[in-house]
Design goal:
8-stranded mixed sheet, 8 strands, alpha/beta, Spore Coat Polysaccharide Biosynthesis Protein SpsA, Chain A
Length: 328
């Protein structure tokens, strides 16, 4: 590996899931960008593009194989089955860390501006081990996604997670940072929260986001909710403390409800008491269910962590530079 950070080996990691409509166009743009970076003497001639197929059900892997056969600069990694976007990113980075000086991760639809890569590399050359990509705006998002993203980032900051608002999985990490990341063994991955926790020298690059040109987004509402839950439960125990606070509040409300019921009973307004009792049942029942749900979420995730199952397994690996299938 290079010592002075000039013309380092770059591996661009691209997670893919059912991207048959977009992958050839994206690969062409990434190959052109890689060639430009090489001609500008910003990266080494040994730099590569790594496509990670996250158990796609369409022709994504077949197209990756075609790209691999047509260019020595393409590497293909295929999961045995779908393991999720975060695991796909991690798998690509863990594979790349043994061959490169730094990686840049970017989504297969290339909505993120690939022309920001020069800025990422400049920050790396100046000494940053991690360069975070932060969106300039969310103008391309709908109202719901924009509002929910804002609430999510505010909530994560409130819960104590060191996360960059409007950050994305478009980032640069040095080999040193990747080695540090490999020490994190969480099953429930939330890279946007884990990577800032590494603590090495960091910087930020802002980039534009463009509308998707090919295919449709594979990041459904359920996947966004899962990612949000992973982020919250992986980095904070405040929800458990909020459960305790809810219990105290419920007890206080219950105490006043008892006084109210006794008052109605003493003055003969027992019929009216029906609504009070019903309200108290619903209030306490709701608080109990919410509390059990939050505690159960933590218990369930603790259960998943204790099993120590591999996070992914490469069913097939395509590389002109060598490298066998691996698990992580």
């Amino acid at each position: 590996m290079v010592g002075n950070r000039q013309q380092g080996i770059l591996y661009i990691v691209v997670p893919c899931y059912n991207e048959e409509e977009a992958i050839k166009v994206s690969a062409k743009k990434l190959w052109e960008k890689l060639s430009q970076l090489k001609s500008d003497k910003l990266i080494s001639e040994k730099s590569r593009i790594v496509f990670v197929d996250d158990g796609s059900k369409d022709r994504t892997w077949e197209l990756i194989k075609e790209l691999y056969e047509s260019s020595d600069e393409i590497i293909g990694l295929r999961f045995a089955h779908n393991r999720g976007h975060q695991n796909a990113i991690l798998a690509g980075m863990m594979y790349a860390k043994d061959y490169c000086d730094f990686v840049i991760t970017i989504d297969a639809d290339l909505q993120q501006d690939i022309n920001a890569m020069e800025s990422f590399i400049n920050e790396y050359v100046l000494g940053s081990e991690i360069v975070f990509g932060v969106r300039n705006s969310r103008d391309t998002d709908g109202f719901f996604k924009k509002a929910s993203a804002t609430i999510f980032y505010k909530t994560m900051r409130f819960l104590g997670c060191n996360i960059y608002e409007n950050s994305a999985d478009y980032r640069l990490m040095s080999a040193k940072a990747l080695d540090a990341l490999s020490e994190y063994g969480e099953v429930n991955l939330f890279l946007r929260g884990i990577i800032p926790d590494i603590g090495l020298k960091t910087s930020v690059v802002h980039f534009d986001v463009f509308p998707r040109e090919q295919g449709t987004s594979k990041y459904s509402l359920s996947k966004m909710i899962t990612l949000a839950v992973d982020g919250i439960t992986s980095f904070s125990i405040k929800p458990i403390r909020l459960v305790f606070t809810m219990g105290i509040i419920s007890l206080v409300i219950g105490f006043f409800m008892v006084i109210h019921i006794l008052y109605e009973h003493y003055f003969g307004y027992t019929v009216n008491g029906w609504s009070s009792i019903l309200m108290s049942i619903w209030l306490l029942g709701g608080a109990i269910l919410i509390s059990l749900g939050i505690i159960g979420e933590y218990v369930g995730r603790n259960y998943m962590e204790t099993k120590h199952r591999p996070r992914y397994y490469f069913w097939e690996t395509l590389s002109h530079d060598g490298g066998d299938g691996a698990q992580g």
